[in-house]
Structure formats: C-alpha cells, structure tokens
Amino acid sequence: MTTIEYAEILESLAEDDDVELKTTPTAKSFIDSLKVKKVECEKDIPFCVVCQDMMNVGDFLMELPCMHNYHVDCIQSWLATRNTCPVCRFELPTSDLVLGSIEISYLINFKKKLETLITNPF
Ligand SMILES: [Zn+2]
Ligand SMILES: [Zn+2]
C-alpha cells in the first residue's frame, strides 16, 4: 500500500462520523444496566450491525432502549467510544468519567475498521 492510499483511507475514516475522534462514551453504569438476552429461536435471529453478521442461536445479545439488538461484545466496544445506537442514533446517557480502557477499545475498533476498508474498499 502506498502512502497516498493510506492517506485516503485515513481521510475517508475522518469523514465517517462514526469514527470522529471526539466522541462521548456511554455511561458504564448504563451499559451494565442493559438487558442481556440469549438468542434462543432460530426463526428470530437478529442481525448485528456492528460486526455486520447474523447472530447465532446461543449467542448473547444486548438490547438498547430503542429495541435494537447487538452482540454483547460488539455493542460494549461500540458504546465504549460513543453514546448512540449504531442503527438509529438513539442517544444514550454519557459518563464524565474517562476510563483507560476506552482508548484501547477505540483503537481496536479503528484498526478493525481500517482492516475492513483495506480488504473491501467498496
Ligand atoms: Zn456483532
Ligand atoms: Zn436503535
């Protein structure tokens, strides 16, 4: 990959408002209070927008107040850097506390996103 391509990827990331550097994490106490459910019925498998994958029977999902469902791990790392639902942008309570792990999960997400863009640019 050339430096120019790399710069273009960074630029496209900067334009994507999901990856704005200045995002507010969701309050941890709020995330802890969210309902966790187990996927039990094969007919009713939700799609997780965060990892762009269907859930499987037996997976644990977390339901936001707007009734959107995600894998527990996916939504937790999502909410560690943002306070909105990935689908409908429903606003969740934020915390003033900035935890060290937030930066780490942000970097992990950033890296994932970058890898996705590199492997499938369109
Ligand atoms: Zn997921
Ligand atoms: Zn939602």
UniProtKB/TrEMBL annotation:
Database matches in SUPFAM superfamilies? RING/U-box
TM spans, by residue? Answer: none
A GO BP annotation: ubiquitin-dependent protein catabolic process
RING-type domain boundaries: 48-89
Highest taxon of source = Eukaryota
Molecular function GO labels:
ubiquitin protein ligase activity; zinc ion binding
Q: Which GO terms describe its cellular component?
A: nucleus
Q: What is this protein called?
A: RING-type domain-containing protein
UniProt entry keywords in alphabetical sequence: Metal-binding, Zinc, Zinc-finger
Give the matching Pfam families.
zf-RING_2
